[in-house]
Amino acid sequence: MIINLNGEILDQTTAKIPAASPAFLNGFGIFETLRTYNQKLFHPEEHLQRLSQSARAIGLVLKWIPKRLQKELEKTLSLSDNPESHARVVVTQDDLIIYVKPLKEKPEYYYCQGVELVSYAGHRSMPSVKKIGDLLCFLANQHAKARGAYEAVLVDPLKYVHECAYANIFWADGGELYTTRKEILFGITRDIVIRLAGECFYMDVSYRNLLLADEVFITQTSSGILPVVAIDGQRIGNGKPGSMTSELMKKFNALVWKS
Fold it and tell me: Which residues of the chain form CATH 3.30.470.10?
């Protein structure tokens, strides 16, 4: 792993933040996760724009303008020899921290056979903000892993689904594509998929109706589009990646892997 702390390249043993930092004591900070395709950062401008939006939402004054952030990000990335890289930009009240490490691609069978989700009761506070120390998402994801699932779908007190712990969610019914847009993190990959689809309807969805969908898939930076074939052990559609999901996966892969 390569770490850039306030413009200085350090290793894991020497990169430190103060013990009294509000980031450590109160979780006061924001972050963005990025990845490369063909060793190039994917939509860095959009990620850093969202970082700025998150900062404004919590009253965090950015000491680094987006252009400078991108320059530091690219500098850190250039020091790696990874086939593909996973990068995280963390901004606190006092510090900029950039982590770059090898990207671990998901197994091919995730895309061919689909993944399973489990439900987790909870709803993120300030969901449009990508903030550090989001314990709910961490616990939800741990819950999913403990049950052998890929990810957790968050179910609010009214039994509605808005998003997953670390992903946005889509579903298809009767040949139409749907997703949510209330109280969610507006994912960069989500936005690209909506554009690729050409037509997508926005709708609230209950947990029960989500289980009845013809197709379900999730989107996230690290994995792109992942078909969902079961939730809480209940099969979605015919239990295989659906035709609409497969077509969008083809379009997305053609876009991101182009030279």
Answer: 2-102
For the residues 111-121, what does the mean pLDDT come to? 98
Residue ranges of the chain assigned to CATH 3.20.10.10: 108-256
Burial per residue of 166-181, b for 16 or more beta-carbon CB atoms within 10 angstroms, e otherwise: bbbbbbbbeeebbbbe
pLDDT tens, position by position, 2-15 = 999 999 999 888 89
Instruction: Give the residue carrying structure tokens 């991101």.
Output: 256
Assigned token pair, 52: 């700025």
Domain 2-102 sits in CATH at 3.30.470.10
Give me the CATH code for the 108-256 domain, please.
Answer: 3.20.10.10
Confidence class of residue 259 from pLDDT cuts 50, 70 and 90? low
Average pLDDT over residues 108-131: 96
Which token pair is 162? 């808005």
Instruction: Please give the full DSSP string across 10-26, using - where no structure is assigned.
Output: E-TTT----TT-HHHHH
Mean of the pLDDT values across residues 134-141? Answer: 96
What is the C-alpha separation between 157 and 163, in angstroms, rounded?
14
Mean pLDDT score of the chain, rounded to an integer?
95
